[in-house]
Structure prediction request, 332 residues.
Amino acid sequence: MSTLNGRILVTGGAGFIGSALVWALNQRGFTDIVITDFLGSDEKWKNLVPLKFATYVEADAFREHLRNKPTAHGKFSTVFHLGACSATTEKNAAYLVGNNYNVTKELASWSLDQGARFIYASSAATYGDGAQGMDDRGEDLHALRPLNMYGYSKHLFDLHAQRQGWFNRIVGVKYFNVFGPNEDHKADMRSLVNKAYQQILNTGTVQLFKSHKLEYNDGEQMRDFLYVKDAIEMTIHFAERATTGGGLFNLGSGQANTWLTLTNAIFDALGREPSIEFIDMPEVLRGKYQYFTQADIAKLRETGYEREMTPLDEAVRDYVQGYLMTGKKLGD
Prediction:
């Protein structure tokens, strides 16, 4: 049973994953979509230009509307809550709690009250350094130790949802390292692919952090890199197959790759020989750095998700040649 049969809300819909999600919904013929976000002074508004949707509402105004009149924007069948501060270096804990925790609590409760399918972005950052594993079946969420306040703000809502007994009805998706088109506005939070492309154009060389752990050589720190087009297919799956129930789910490729593998794929997409320089990792990051992430996606597969992941080299080529080199957005 699909819940994509009525009005759809996408929070953070001008952002990276949010705008990609709206694009994928448009590809399926869905346009009765309300988008909320904080457009601010960056250029993520450009992500909205090629998309089709019913209306756009600034996030704080939308929140106020719901407080005063829960039906202010009509009845929704599905709520994709992707709006959040995603900066892993953000130090304003009060802001993160307000934006990533309190807002999510309000939206989840409101969605459940009106019978809407609620799918929200948790984060792989909730796993911390991975010492407690990266198992989305784990019932003892209290055992997890996020390394930064961003991860903890996401973890707080996961704990709240578990206390409320909501995980039989709502879905939390734990994105691993997502990259792809529509991320230009993210400044320092852009993926390495985006940053490296600019570095190669400017200097011909890509800078990578040295390893500060003996068990990892420079550039051989590992991440589960996930193409945004795969990430949104997985996300929409939980609305298209609402009978899957709820819970927390890892969304990744299921395969860890080194930074060197990723960087070499970027040079290959550009038809250039690799040129890599290793630089010291800033002190502020060293104690909060994940050296290995890999999503176990068996639980996702058990819900009936059968699509294969885009191989890393193909995903990088599609992104570099189809979007970075052309300046196109999803939907152009």
Summary: The radius of gyration is 19 Å. Residues 77 and 116 are 5 Å apart (CA to CA). The mean pLDDT is 94. Residues 93-113 form the longest helix (21 residues).
